[in-house]
Structure formats: structure tokens, C-alpha cells
């Protein structure tokens, strides 16, 4: 008999949230099913490269010098497991998004090797998918989403390792201290009166002063505002009239699981429209295309 799996409170929390959504909003059933399938795949996936973590003092010095941690490290993938996991991701996504079937066909015909773009994305190098997509006959957005999903368990493992023991209070930059990407959204913990920014690429979260605009650094309260919809006490946007940036913010006492970040973002698409109509843009756009 196989040994029982160790309990995973984050995975349980993801499933509880998806159960809750399916029960309260039946129209989101298919979307919830998609996120449940993805979370299941990520849950059982091993990182494609084991994190190499420098000493705490070295990592703290890198951050102190204003540099994110991951671009300083070279991630070397095991080629076959990386290709296999990319194929697994494409197969799962193709059951929800027909566009992913073209990627599967390109893999089968050896018209697409996911390894070079995976490495580019992991290192924050410019992702030149246009030419690749043209020769492989696949849509750039679909490929981008599949690459991001394929990297997720790896970047999450690296983020966990690299952040271990670090004091992030001195960082206070809008870019992710791990991978350098811009945050998808912010979390506001009212009891602790603390705002954290969240990166959807690697899952990291870091404190950022609630009075400061992540778009331009403006801290003047007279040029900042708040936008929310009646009846939604869970989500609001902080706006800045200096740079016209808005930050979607979710009220929560504990960090949102990485695998639910883009879903929580998707659930408040009305707020995005409201911000857009008033001339505001997001710090970073959603990273993944909405499912189905
Ligand atoms: Zn990140
Ligand atoms: Zn601003």
C-alpha cells in the first residue's frame, strides 16, 4: 500500500475556495474546474531544477543592492523532464482551451522545442515567441501561458528557497524581490494594517507601504484615491493621479495561494473596467489568459 500523502494546508485551502465558488456561482463551474485541474497538476509536480541558494548574508546583500535574487542565478533544466512537464501542461490545458491542441500537435511533429523559451522566461530574458510561434503554427498567448504554467512549480520552489530567512522590510520596491516581475495585485490585511504586493509568476509576496504608489513612488494622499463597487467589501483599487496607475487590492488576513492569484484577479474584472473607464492602467496586466 502506498504511504499516505502528507497533508498540504495550501492545497486544501485551494480546493475549499473552489468548492465555495462552485456552490455560490454555478456560472463559474467550468472556470473553477480549470483551476482545480491546474492546482492538482502543480501539487504533484517536482521542480525542473533544484534551487541553489546562496547564504542568507549574500542574498540579503543582493537585495540591499537593489537587485532581485533570481536573475542573479542560472537555472539549468533537466531537458527531458522539462519537455515532458510542458507536454503534460499542454495536454491538460487543451481539454479547456482548444488553442493548446495546436501546441500539442507542434510537439508531436517536433516543430516546437519548449526548452529555449522556458530558459528565457525563467531568466527574465526577452521572450521572442513570435518567430517560434510562426514556425510552429501556434498562438503566442497560448504558448506564453503554457510556458508560465510549466515553470510555476520550479519558480515557486526557487522563491521559497531564496526567501527563506530573509528580511524584506528594506526592499519596498514595486518589482518582485525574487524574479523581478511587476506585481499582479496587492493584499491588504486590515487587522495588521499591512499591504503586500504579490507576484503571480513566482508567487512571492513582499511588504509595500500602503501610502505609496507602486507605479511612481508618489506618497501624497491628496493625489491618490480608492475605487470600489457597492457591495464588494473584498476588493478595491488604489489609484494614483500622478502616473494614472491603479493597484487592485484584495482584503485578506492570509496570503492568497499562488495557484489562485489569477483566478481572484479574474473574479473582479468589473473593477478593471471601472478603472480603465476612468483612465487608469494596472501596474502589470494579468499574466494568464482567462480560461475557456
Ligand atoms: Zn516573482
Ligand atoms: Zn503613481
**Count, helices:** 10
Mean pLDDT: 90
Structural class of the helices, strands and pairings?
alpha/beta
How does the major sheet shape up? 7 strands, mixed
Radius of gyration: 19 Å
Describe the structure.
Helices cover about 40% and strands about 10% of the residues. It is of the alpha/beta class and about 290 residues long. Strands 1, 2, 3, 4, 5, 6 and 7 form a seven-stranded mixed β-sheet that branches. The protein is globular and about 60 Å long. Bound molecules: zinc ion (ZN) (2 copies). One zinc ion (ZN) binds next to loops.
Describe the secondary-structure layout:
Blueprint: H1 9-24, H2 29-44, H3 56-64, H4 79-94, H5 99-108, H6 115-122, H7 129-136, H8 140-163, E1 185-189, E2 194-198, E3 205-207, E4 224-227, E5 235-240, E6 245-251, H9 261-267, H10 269-277, E7 281-282
Parallel strand pairs: 1-6, 6-7
Antiparallel strand pairs: 1-2, 2-3, 4-5, 5-6
Helix pairs in contact: 1-2, 4-5, 4-8, 6-8
The structure holds zinc ion (2 copies).
One zinc ion binds next to loops.
Amino acid at each position: 500500500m502506498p504511504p499516505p500523502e502528507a497533508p498540504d494546508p495550501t492545497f486544501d485551502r485551494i480546493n475549499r475556495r473552489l468548492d465555495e465558488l462552485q456552490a455560490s456561482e454555478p456560472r463559474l463551474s467550468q472556470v473553477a474546474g480549470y483551476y482545480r485541474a491546474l492546482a492538482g497538476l502543480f501539487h504533484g509536480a517536482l521542480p525542473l531544477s533544484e534551487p541553489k541558494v546562496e547564504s542568507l548574508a549574500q542574498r540579503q546583500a543582493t537585495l540591499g543592492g537593489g537587485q532581485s535574487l533570481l536573475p542573479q542565478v542560472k537555472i539549468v533544466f533537466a531537458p527531458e523532464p522539462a519537455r515532458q512537464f510542458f507536454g503534460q501542461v499542454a495536454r491538460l490545458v487543451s481539454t479547456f482551451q482548444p488553442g493548446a491542441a495546436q501546441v500539442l500537435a507542434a510537439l508531436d511533429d517536433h516543430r516546437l522545442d519548449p526548452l529555449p523559451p522556458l530558459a528565457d522566461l525563467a531568466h527574465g530574458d526577452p521572450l521572442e515567441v513570435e518567430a517560434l510561434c510562426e514556425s510552429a503554427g501556434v498562438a503566442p498567448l497560448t504558448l506564453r501561458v503554457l510556458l508560465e504554467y510549466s515553470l510555476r512549480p520550479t519558480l515557486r520552489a526557487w522563491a521559497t528557497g531564496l526567501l527563506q530567512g530573509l528580511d524584506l522590510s528594506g526592499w519596498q520596491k514595486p518589482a518582485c524581490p525574487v524574479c523581478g516581475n511587476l506585481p499582479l495585485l496587492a493584499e491588504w490585511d486590515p487587522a495588521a494594517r499591512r499591504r503586500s504586493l504579490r507576484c503571480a509568476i513566482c508567487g512571492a509576496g513582499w511588504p509595500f507601504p500602503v501610502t505609496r504608489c507602486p507605479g511612481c513612488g508618489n506618497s501624497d494622499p491628496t493625489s491618490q484615491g480608492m475605487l470600489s463597487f457597492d457591495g464588494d467589501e473584498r476588493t478595491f483599487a488604489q489609484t494614483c493621479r500622478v502616473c494614472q496607475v491603479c493597484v487592485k487590492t484584495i482584503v485578506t488576513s492570509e496570503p492568497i495561494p499562488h495557484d489562485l492569484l489569477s483566478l481572484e484577479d479574474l473574479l473582479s474584472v468589473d473593477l478593471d473596467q471601472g478603472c480603465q473607464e476612468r483612465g487608469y492602467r494596472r501596474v502589470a496586466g494579468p499574466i494568464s489568459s482567462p480560461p475557456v
